[in-house]
Design brief:
The chain is mostly helical and 675 residues long. It contains 33 helices and four strands. It has a two-stranded parallel ribbon. A two-stranded antiparallel sheet has the order 3-4.
């Protein structure tokens, strides 16, 4: 059973709806769906719970469920633009582009200035290869928003599809002019230059793309190709190494790195790459032939013969296969088999010579072998190319398989990339933490450790600023825990920790109002219990953050988190952060060594644009904890906001050194601005 608020048939739907939207805002999708279910069961005639449940489902990749909920929302209120927008995205994720186009056109009928809807409509046109209408829609989008960078990138894609590389380059140039800090703009222009054979220029563009986005695998793969064409094999291999560190199962990365390793004589490691390729594609004959050559060179003659035989069985007229197998067989002592292969080679040479005479004495090397296309002088081949004679060529993705960020980035999901520069978030006491792929830090304070040792808590309490949404089982556990804590409070109403623990449960299920009430009651029971002040400040801050988002909605423009509509935010009313700051003041007074309170207060002061006071708190946090990466990052941004770029960049460099990778992107931006 859920918290008793749901046990009654007469639930407060407004309150439950608000809690559900609060959970959705903080990306706790599974939990939010449970709240919306309660509202739907109580008042099935409302459109809002269906719409917000659809939004939660689409973020959980339940596209069919999201579509069905949007249908219900639109049936109840056909004038909700965002419902068409979300349903359109659900159609896209199910490859129903016609349905998506219908939804986006309907949305634009009601809201013709909705930029994300225009964006998605254009991408659907491109997906359907309707380039004429795509170009028309892009012109309409630019009329609404002349400085919308992605419109120029999409127009560049349309021009590329129509083989107009000159105009495509002009579009990408314009996109870079408008936003030189978007890695996708540089990557797109780099790809066009790569296709045109302008390899040095392509490498330069991809350098910029990589500096702005160090995790983009395709940028490293493409830069490796540009370097390969400039005979920089070591540089190309370095790029493949980085790409495979990021994405260990990248097929093209392993194949091409294997070829380059073979070229520089690193045979054993080249074998490792081709072994991987053949695990993924056991029938890849080019990889098999390359592995056969490598096995031959490292002395595995039996393995080489086996691979050569596999290729010859697939391509019985592949002369090079017989030639190499003859050599390998001779090394194993199979003289009879080697002689048979040599005879086969001689026989094929005579046949080719006869065919050459029949076609005006063309050079023998220019005559295709039976069943194969003629070779060419290119140094690369498409991934779909099955001509075995191209086994030594570097592989490039087929055009329709390349992942173009400007082509595939549909707008409307919470996960859409946000390029805003933001301070690192507040620290919180919780039971769950998101894993950091770059660093592993254990945050410690003796009082919290002592609480964990008491064994009163349901889980180990941790200090983190990387919260993670609850799973369905965790949600159920904390609803049950609320009931259990309520029983304990009834039995012992003066125990502060019982209120504190129930307050944590309420916080985790996103009932912020009840959480604040419990932390307040814990403080009344024990005015020296600083974790209650710390958590009440945190929950109050989050409540203000949510209210700020709600105030944006009330102006008629939805926030990125609630609908993915990426538009400039209107002015936000000044909210009262004094209570938050007061709780943190009290935390610091009771626990002057609790470094996270100084850090959080610094964030609150920065939110209030009181940067000089924020610096004082960040300084104290770093004094208490010399490797406090987030404090360095936020202090760096604060210095920059005050115009002290040199000090700011120094702090950001330290934050990057301590594991906050995004610091390097910020450094690049402000370094260029200060030049």
């Amino acid at each position: 059973m859920f918290f008793p608020v749901f046990a009654s048939a007469q639930i407060n739907t407004d309150r439950v709806m608000a809690i559900g939207r609060n959970a959705l805002y903080f990306e706790d999708y599974v939990l939010s769906i449970q709240y919306f279910n309660q509202v739907i069961n109580s008042k099935p005639y409302l459109y809002e719970p269906y719409f917000y449940r659809a939004l939660a489902k689409i973020n959980l990749d339940d596209f069919q469920g999201a579509e069905e909920d949007c249908n219900e929302a639109i049936e109840r209120n056909p004038f909700i633009v965002n419902a068409y927008q979300i349903r359109g995205l659900a159609h896209i994720r199910q490859s129903n582009y016609e349905g998506a186009i219908e939804d986006y056109e309907k949305a634009l009928h009601y809201y013709p200035e909705n930029i994300p809807v225009w964006h998605n409509l254009v991408l659907c046109r491109i997906q359907q290869k309707d380039y004429e209408k795509a170009a028309e829609n892009i012109d309409q989008l630019l009329a609404v928003s002349p400085r919308y960078t992605r419109a120029y990138m999409m127009r560049g894609e349309v021009n590329l599809q129509q083989k107009d590389t000159v105009q495509a380059l002009a579009d990408f140039d314009k996109a870079i002019e408008l936003d030189k800090y978007d890695s996708d703009t540089w990557a797109a222009r780099g790809m066009v230059r790569l296709q045109k054979g302008e390899y040095a220029e392509a490498e330069s563009d991809l350098d910029q793309a990589i500096q702005l986005n160090t995790k983009g695998v395709n940028n490293y793969i493409n830069r490796a190709l540009a370097r390969f064409h400039q005979n920089n094999l070591r540089g190309a291999m370095s790029d493949y190494d980085i790409a495979l560190d990021i994405e260990p199962y990248n097929f093209i990365g392993h194949y091409n790195r294997g070829l380059l390793r073979a070229q520089v004589g690193d045979d054993n490691r080249a074998l490792e790459d081709f072994d991987f390729v053949l695990q993924v594609e056991p029938d890849n004959m080019m990889a098999t032939f390359n592995r056969a050559i490598l096995r031959d060179q490292v002395g595995d003659f039996q393995g080489a013969v086996q691979d050569y035989t596999t290729v010859i069985n697939e391509y019985p007229n592949f002369m090079a296969g017989y030639h190499h197998r003859a050599q390998a067989r001779r090394k194993t002592g199979d003289i009879k088999g080697a002689d048979a292969d040599d005879f086969k080679v001689l026989q094929m040479q005579l046949e080719r010579q006869n065919r050459a005479s029949a076609v005006n004495n063309r050079d023998i090397a220019d005559v295709p072998e039976d069943g194969e296309e003629g070779d060419d002088d290119a140094k690369t081949r498409k991934q779909s190319d099955k001509n075995i004679r191209n086994y030594r060529k570097i592989m490039v993705a087929d055009t329709n398989e390349e992942e173009d960020p400007y082509k595939n980035t549909y707008r409307g999901r919470v996960q859409d990339k946000n390029v805003d520069i933001r301070i690192e978030p507040l620290y919180v006491l919780t039971y769950y933490e998101k894993e950091d792929p770059v660093r592993r830090v254990v945050n410690y304070h003796k009082f919290i450790d002592d609480m964990n040792r008491e064994g009163l808590l349901s889980h180990r309490l941790i200090i983190t600023n990387m919260e993670t949404p609850l799973t369905e089982k965790q949600v159920e556990f904390h609803f049950n825990s609320i009931d259990a804590r309520t029983t304990e409070i009834v039995a012992n109403p003066q125990e502060a920790k019982n209120y504190f623990m129930r307050g944590l449960d309420f916080y985790l299920v996103q009932d912020l109002g009840s959480s604040i009430e419990d932390f307040t009651q814990a403080i009344r029971c024990d005015e020296t219990f600083f974790p209650a002040y710390f958590m009440r400040a945190l929950v109050r801050y989050k409540q203000l953050e949510y209210e700020k988002a709600e105030s944006v909605i009330s102006t008629g423009v939805t926030t990125p988190t609630l609908s993915g509509v990426m538009v400039p935010k209107p002015e936000v009313p000044v909210l009262n952060y004094d209570a938050v700051k007061s709780d943190l003041d009290q935390t610091i007074q009771l626990a002057p060594d609790f470094v996270y309170a100084y850090y959080n207060r610094g964030n609150v002061l920065a939110q209030l644009n009181d940067y000089r006071s924020a610096l004082v708190d960040y300084n104290k946090a770093i004094e208490l904890h010399k490797d406090f990466a987030e404090a360095y990052f936020n202090r760096g941004l604060t210095h920059i906001y005050l115009g002290n770029n040199r000090l700011g960049i120094s702090d950001l460099s330290k934050a990057g050194e301590l594991g906050i990778v995004s610091a390097y992107n910020v450094i690049k931006r402000f370094t260029e601005q200060s030049e």
